[in-house]
Backbone:
């Protein structure tokens, strides 16, 4: 099948790694840094919110957020993210990547600040929780837009030799966001713990939560606006991607002009652009039979694997504090004061992020263009399944004090192989395999499927992990299947992800146009020939 490539796009594909590549990684990556910080910082303060607004000092244990409030506070941002991924993904293909990119960042900055300014101090915290959920929904909406836009922009700027590493590096900033949320919580809680000494809850319940603790969660959440604000100017200075300008906006002259400045070379606008854009391979829509024939299985693969991955990933991340409490790595709530509890939860999250989450991301960056996306994703799902079952089947063994270190090590390995595995590749591949005019939309749909999985994980694990023994259950929760069987379910979910990976193609070493079929010579006999095939089973 004959291929032809616009000069400006070919120049991008064969360009050596230059400063603008790293600039794009930082600019797009800081958005993802903010995304991860904002989504996961909430896990550090939910226990504190329960103590501040729902404690009854006549009870033997400090207050916790009621089930419906916990579900709302942790899940509303995920719902917003899902809707933002669909909306901004579609808008990025209609208006251009750059125009929409700035809007998502502004929304994230404003809503991060507003989350910390949630008003009201009623004993039940109704006003605070309601306004916090409102702003976190819109924060999630802005975060959702960053997924398809960051991935698409980086894929369209990158050369084909190191494209996977560049997109994965943007996504790897998520690890630093999770790590930073823990570090910020450690610093803030340590400062308040030293400044405002308090007894544990079982020593003196009425004094265990100092009034100044209300500032802690606000400072932690508001800090998320800082990295986003720092990169706003540079994000606005980025030119529109050449692939959108040339292939979607049909302005090869402007694309050549923009990329000539970036690449420091002379590029001419090509006359063949109009002829290329009129090919049948460049005209079908998202809901056409042609798209279904060319990319239907691929899209099914990217959506299902991201959905299954996020069930496990967000269950583990959002509720790791509950898992650590269940095995005794974090003391019982009544044995700590409110501020120290924040510190202990933050320390656990920071250690996991530092030792497994962050290294996993960067192993992917280093190896994705060497061994390929398919191998990394398959390997990741396999080891996530193995380690999840290794935790679940002998779960009672891990609850003994002398075995807790082993539990933490294996638990950390599940994070390592999710990030050196499907958590990175499910983000990378949808930005590579679809046509330019549908790329952002398709990535947004795949990402939204992932967030649907995150919602299932966040809400499902919250209830499922509750023990059957009423005395061990959190107040207000119905009986669940317990942590052990919840981990078994997550292991089965990971196993399903392993098998659905076989629907996902391998984009390694190919140009975006070769993968999407936008350069195919569409003669009558081969107009619908697949430009790339799923890796055979």
Residues:
């Amino acid at each position: 099948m004959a291929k032809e490539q616009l000069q400006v796009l070919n120049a991008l594909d064969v360009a050596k790694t230059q400063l603008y590549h790293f600039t794009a990684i930082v600019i797009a990556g800081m958005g993802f840094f903010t995304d991860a910080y904002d989504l996961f910082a909430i896990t550090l303060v939910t226990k504190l919110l329960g103590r501040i607004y729902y404690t009854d000092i006549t009870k033997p244990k400090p207050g916790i957020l009621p089930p419906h409030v916990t579900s709302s506070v942790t899940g509303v941002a995920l719902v917003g993210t899902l809707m933002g991924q669909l909306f901004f993904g579609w808008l990025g293909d209609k208006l251009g990547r750059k125009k929409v990119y700035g809007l998502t960042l502004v929304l994230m900055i404003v809503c991060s600040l507003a989350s910390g300014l949630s008003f009201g101090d009623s004993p039940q915290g109704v006003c605070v929780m309601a306004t916090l959920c409102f702003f976190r929904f819109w924060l999630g909406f802005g975060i959702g837009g960053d997924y398809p836009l960051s991935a698409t922009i980086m894929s369209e700027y990158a050369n084909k030799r190191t494209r996977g590493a560049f997109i994965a590096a943007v996504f790897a900033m998520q690890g630093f966001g999770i790590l930073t949320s823990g570090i910020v919580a450690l610093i803030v809680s340590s400062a308040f713990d030293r400044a405002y000494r308090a007894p544990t809850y079982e020593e003196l319940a009425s004094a265990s939560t100092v009034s100044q603790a209300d500032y802690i969660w606000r400072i932690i959440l508001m800090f998320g606006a800082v990295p986003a604000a720092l990169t706003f100017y540079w994000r606005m200075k980025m030119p529109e991607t050449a692939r959108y300008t040339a292939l979607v906006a049909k302005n090869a002259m402007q694309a050549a002009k923009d990329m000539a400045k970036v690449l420091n070379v002379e590029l001419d606008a090509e006359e063949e652009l109009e002829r290329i854009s009129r090919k049948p391979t460049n005209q079908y829509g998202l809901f056409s039979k042609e798209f279904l024939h060319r990319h239907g299985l691929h899209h099914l693969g990217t959506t299902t694997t991201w959905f299954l991955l996020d069930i496990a990933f967000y269950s583990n991340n959002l509720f790791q504090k509950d898992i650590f409490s269940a095995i005794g790595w974090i003391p019982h709530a009544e044995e700590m004061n409110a501020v120290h509890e924040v510190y202990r939860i933050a320390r656990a999250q920071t250690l996991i992020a530092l030792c497994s989450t962050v290294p996993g991301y960067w192993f992917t960056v280093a190896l994705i263009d060497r061994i390929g996306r398919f191998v990394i994703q398959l390997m990741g799902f396999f080891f996530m399944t193995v380690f999840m079952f290794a935790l679940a089947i002998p779960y009672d063994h891990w609850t003994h004090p002398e075995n807790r270190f082993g539990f933490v090590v294996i638990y950390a390995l599940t994070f390592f192989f999710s990030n050196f595995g499907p958590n990175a590749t499910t983000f990378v591949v949808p930005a590579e395999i679809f046509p330019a005019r549908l790329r952002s939309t398709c990535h947004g749909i795949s990402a939204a499927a992932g967030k649907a999985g995150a919602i299932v994980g966040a809400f499902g694990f919250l209830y499922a992990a509750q023990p059957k023994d009423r005395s061990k259950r959190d107040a207000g929760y119905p009986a669940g299947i317990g942590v052990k069987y919840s981990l078994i379910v997550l292991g089965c979910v990971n196993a399903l992800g392993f098998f659905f990976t076989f629907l996902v193609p391998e984009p390694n070493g190919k140009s975006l146009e070769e993968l999407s079929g936008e350069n195919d010579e569409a003669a009558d006999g081969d107009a619908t020939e697949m430009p790339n095939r799923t890796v055979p089973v």
